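Take a sample.
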Amino acid sequence: METTCPRCGSDTVELGEKSLEIGLTRNEPVSIRLCGNCALVFYVHIEKISKF
């Protein structure tokens, strides 16, 4: 996944993935990204295939 920083447009690195709670009943998988230029930490929604 190539993601650029929404603030400055520089390259970013992935710090990890987690399940972000939205409300009381929903969880969405996100990637935690860090910009090397302006040090912005932000989340990017990722698509995961649910395992059954």
Summary: The first strand starts at residue 12 and ends at 22.
